[in-house]
Amino acid sequence: MDFVKDPRLIEQGSFEIISRELGERGFGHIEGNIIKRIIHTTADFEYADITQLHPQAIEAGMRALGSGCKIYTDTQMIMSGINKRKLGELGGSIVNMVHEPEAASIASSEGITRSMAAMRMAAGDESIKIFAIGNAPTALFTLKSLIEEGIVRPELVIGVPVGFVGAAESKEEIKKAGVPYIVTRGRKGGSTVAAAIVNALLYSMPEKL
After folding, report:
1. 171 inside domain
2. Looking at the predicted structure, is the pLDDT value of residue 140 above 90?
3. Containing domain of residue 192, as a range?
4. pLDDT tens figures, 88-136
5. Where is the Cobalamin biosynthesis precorrin-8X methylmutase CobH/CbiC domain (predicted)?
6. Is 40 a catalytic residue?
């Protein structure tokens, strides 16, 4: 059986199919790129209806990336999925503190999740401007509390935890925090979705001279 082997042609063909099946939905150029990349990752066209962007989300996210910021993620999978070469060209980096011994110690002593403990630790690093949460609703709830307490002020929150307990609610709550956000309504989301959103923003950045 003959089949396409060139990865560039496979990706190009995939995006052509996605664009054709999406049709005219009225998305802005970069918003459309974000949604198409999520669909490319998930093969799920419902994301065109459930992905929500704060009016300043794209501008704020690209400004933060252009400044060479750190991105905090709640999973190693998000870290693995982000294009580190593109991020590195902008001077940026990725951090995850969930598996740090300090996070485990805090979680054990206070009876909270490691994701919550790690989020508190991350709040102390002012160079983290983007938070990408794809797994733990508790991390997103904690981030909202830290924002409201004035401890942290992200440029952008990508809030797409997946699951049945707290996921949908955490995404609705982060929308009330007063910072730019990109979320997926309801139970759907995940680490691959979070990475896809970051990559879509990275690929939309203007080339540096």
Report:
1. yes
2. yes
3. 48-204
4. 999 999 999 999 999 999 999 999 999 999 999 999 999 999 999 999 9
5. 10-203
6. yes
**Cα dist from 77 to 102, 103, 125, whole Å:** 21, 18, 21
Q: Which of 29, 40, 54, 99 is the catalytic position?
A: 40
Query: Hey, which bits of the chain come out as E strands?
Result: 51-53, 70-73, 93-95, 128-133, 156-159, 181-184
Mean pLDDT of the chain: 94
Residue 209 has pLDDT above 50, yes or no: no
Helix-helix angle 101-110:114-122, to 10 degrees: 120
Which CATH number covers residue 107?
3.40.50.10230
Q: Per the domain annotation, does 5 fall within a domain? A: no
In a domain, 10, yes or no: no
Instruction: Evaluate whether residue 157 is within a structural domain.
Output: yes
Which amino acid does the sequence have at 110?
E
> Which residue type occupies 22?
L
Task: Give the total number of structural domains in the chain.
Answer: 1
Q: Average pLDDT, stretch 141-160?
A: 98
pLDDT recorded at residue 208: 56
Q: What is the DSSP string of 124-163?
A: T-TTEEEEEESS-HHHHHHHHHHHHTTS---SEEEE---S
